[in-house]
Structure formats: structure tokens, C-alpha cells
Amino acid sequence: MTRRSEYPLPGAGGDRPDRPSADPNGGDAPSSSRAGGGAPPRPEEQARAICLRLLTGSPRTRKQLADALAKRDIPAEVAEEVLSRFEDVGLIDDSAFAGAWVESRHHGRGLARRALARELRTKGVDAAVIDEAVGRLDSEQEEHTARELVDRKLRATRGLDREKRLRRLAGMLARKGYPEGLALRVVRRALEEEGEEPELLEHWLPDA
């Protein structure tokens, strides 16, 4: 799997998708001048402007945009209509969002499938879409990434007593969502290759 840069978060730099510059309904995006004549913009115009502004900053899920519209007191039926229109023209695509999120956060931060699924749930992505996205990471890739994380951390733990070192390495993997069995297996293998006696590790890291 090809490595990519960290998935762009709101306000962060890096590659971003093409910025939507036009109204999904075919016209130009509403400008402040349209409301300058005295009459406030219609709720539909407000909703489109809010969504376009947020999508210009970074990709968003439908749920994230819906929450933003609700905070601005956009009527629910108006929000639903505008969001559906954005989906129809491809400006909202939760499946693409989830796939890009999984790939970038796995390669950029080393997060495991469990942690990635948790993040996507907080962004309102549907469970079936999450399962499909995280399913693209197989167990072999996940274990390979876990070993890379441990290898990078090994040098920093040298000099610590054995128990503290084991806890630190396994805890680092656990915080990134790796299952306990996989974490212990990877840590044990790394320490054995570094020269630790397998018999001494047996007490702290039984075969997983």
C-alpha cells in the first residue's frame, strides 16, 4: 500500500481536494453582497454557503456538515435538501472520506483498525461504510506497521528495566488500537531480535 501524507485536518496544510467554487445548483456561490440589499439570505442560500465554506477548508462527512447547519439554526428540512444535493453532485462522499482517512491515518500515525473505526464513528460515518474502509487494511499490513512503530521506539527505551520497557512498548501499541495479542507478539519478537533471552521474556510476555 502506498504511503500518503497525513490526512488534512481542518486548518492544516497539505494537499487538499479541489475547492468547490460554484453552487451545486449551478449558480455562483452566494456572496455577502446578495444580502446587502436589506433582505436576509434565504435559508437555502445560507446552508449552501456554510457547506461550501467548510468543504473549502477540508473534506467533511455529511454528519459533520449537518451538525454545523443545525448550530446555525438552519431548518432541518432545508439542511436535508441541501446536503442531499451536495451528495448528488459529489461534494459529500462519506465512503471516499472514510477510505482516505483510513489510509492516511494508518500510514501517517500508525493507527490500527480499531482506532480508525473509533475515529470515523465520532465523525458520523455509517457503520457499513466504516467496515468497508477499515477492511482494506489486512492483518499482515497491521502487524507490519506495529513492528515499524516498535522498532522506532526501541532505542528510546534502552536503559530502562525490562518490565518498564515492555509496558511502554506494549502500551504505545495499545493506545494506537492494536489488539493485545498482536502487540505482545510484536514486542516479544523485537526484543528477542535485539538480544533479550526468550526465557527471561517468558515471564512478562507469554507466547501470544
TrEMBL record:
GO terms, biological process: regulation of DNA repair
Span of domain RecX first three-helical: 47-85
One family name in Pfam for this protein: RecX_HTH2
SUPFAM superfamilies the record matches: RuBisCo, C-terminal domain (SSF51649)
Domain of life: Bacteria
Segments for region (Disordered): 1-47
Domain RecX third three-helical: 142-186
Chief location bin: cytoplasm
Keywords from the named record: Cytoplasm
Transmembrane regions: none
Domain RecX second three-helical: 93-133
Record family assignment: Belongs to the RecX family.
Protein task: Modulates RecA activity.
Protein name: Regulatory protein RecX
Lineage: Bacteria, Bacillati, Actinomycetota, Actinomycetes, Kitasatosporales
Primary gene name: recX
